[in-house]
Structures are given as structure tokens and as C-alpha cells.
Design goal:
Elements lengths: L15 E2 L5 E3 L7 E7 L10 H6 L11 H4 L8 E3 L5 E3 L5 E3 L6 E2 L2 E2 L5 E7 L8 H17 L4 E4 H4 L22
Parallel strand pairs: 1-5, 3-9, 3-10, 4-9
Antiparallel strand pairs: 2-6, 4-5, 7-8
């Protein structure tokens, strides 16, 4: 299994880095939350370049009707785990990626300020692949070793009115516990 040890610059070893311009400085030093998401672009389709293009502001609205709705959004995540387990990093963990939007965790607003966003290539309608859980667990172990993480949650936990991801097919029993 690959290790994804996080270096002092906030980057995971063995991850492909594709820089996103959609980040800024964290207003706090504390990084205590991991937020798990799902994403597929076009919706329900896997393996294309849509996610990378969205996170790098290169999404072409003429390629798919859904893209006309989202191509101007400035969003990102720290990590994306493809269906085959490939790990891509878009933003250093030391910076604030724009993944959570309006959110609240245990009374704290703006979860982007103190969280790492991990996107899984998937949807609310399909099971996730074993390779994704393997990569996710290795990444979680390394993030927990590097930062004082106190919780791992879904996007739906911090924005329940707006979001449903990682969705009903995400198997939380496959995720390593914080004490592991």
C-alpha cells in the first residue's frame, strides 16, 4: 500500500498534484476536520476530465448542458480520489480550499477554515470502489498523523439542508476510526 505522508508544505507524497487557483489562506492555524464529498462530472459519469477542469477553472460550458450551470463556479478540494484509487491533490492542506460552502460543525461556522476536503469520484447513486476506500484510509491515516484531526464527516453532516454527499452508498464502516 502507498503511503501519502503529508510534508511540511501540506502536500501528500505519491499524489499527483494539479494546482487549483481556487484557494486562499486559512484564517486559523488549526486543522481539525476532514470532510468527505462525492463528485462526478458530467453527473453520473466517471473517468473524464470534468472534475479537474472544474477545480482549475477550465470547464467548457459547451461540452455538456450541466456545465452551463456550473462553469463559472470557483470551487476546489484538497484531494480527489478517482474510481481506480488514484489520488490527486489540488490545494495544500495548509491553505483553505473552497469545498464546503455555507457549513457548520459543532457550532463552528465556515468549515473550509479548519477542514481538509476529500472528494471521491462518485455519486449518491453508485457504490464506491474498493480502491477508493483503500486510498482514502491511507490518506486519512497520514492526515491524522500530521494534523490534530478530531472528526471525519460527510458534506451532508456540515450542510444537511443543501448537501447529501458522500451519499447513501458511502460505506462509513470502511473508514478507519480516528483512534486507529
Amino acid at each position: 500500500m502507498k503511503s501519502y505522508a503529508i510534508d511540511d508544505a501540506g502536500f501528500a507524497t505519491n499524489a499527483q498534484v494539479i494546482a487549483s487557483p481556487n484557494f486562499d489562506a486559512r484564517p486559523v492555524d488549526e486543522l481539525s476536520l476532514i470532510v468527505i464529498h462525492n463528485i462526478s462530472l458530467p453527473p453520473g459519469q466517471y473517468g473524464g476530465n470534468g472534475i479537474v477542469e472544474l477545480f482549475t477553472n477550465q470547464l467548457n460550458p459547451s461540452e455538456h448542458s450541466f456545465y452551463t450551470e456550473i462553469h463559472t463556479q470557483k470551487v476546489s478540494a484538497h484531494f480527489l480520489i478517482r474510481r481506480n484509487g488514484q489520488l490527486i491533490q489540488f490545494v495544500s492542506c495548509l491553505n483553505r480550499a473552497w469545498h464546503a460552502g455555507a457549513s457548520n460543525w459543532q457550532g463552528r461556522e465556515r468549515c473550509n477554515d479548519f477542514s481538509v476536503g476529500v472528494e471521491l469520484e462518485g455519486s449518491d447513486f453508485d457504490v464506491f470502489e474498493r480502491a477508493q476506500y483503500l486510498t482514502l484510509n491511507m490518506l486519512l491515516i497520514d492526515l491524522i498523523r500530521k494534523y490534530p484531526i478530531t472528526a471525519i464527516v460527510g458534506h451532508s453532516d456540515i450542510a444537511p439542508v443543501r448537501k447529501t454527499d458522500p451519499g447513501p452508498y458511502f460505506d462509513w464502516s470502511q473508514v478507519k476510526k480516528l483512534s486507529s
